[in-house]
Amino acid sequence: VQLVESGGGLVQPGGSLRLSCRGSGFTFSSYVMTWYRQAPGKGRELVADIAATGVTTGYAESVKGRFTVSRDNDKNTVYLQMNSLKPEDTAVYYCNAKHYSLGRDYWGQGTQVTVSS
Description:
The protein has 117 residues and is mostly beta strands. Helix content is 0%, strand content 54%.
């Protein structure tokens, strides 16, 4: 099982990034996918999640209206489009795959997002 994030980097305030997370080794389309982030010295925070079918999404209040989560089950990939980025969005972003019925929970290795001028 693997989850591989990509798309992180350094961006100026107000800029945009799109993160991707590709899963392999499990039935991606059956899993809820969630993006988390962890800033230096802080705990891990849920950013956005998307149901297995992609119909339902949820967002942290701090990113509502700026971030959009989506998925392509044919490509086994979940995305996080991040717009109007702020310095406080700086963190390592992780994707998580969870199958509640089977009790399975997988994590990616994380990708660094730095918002700075």
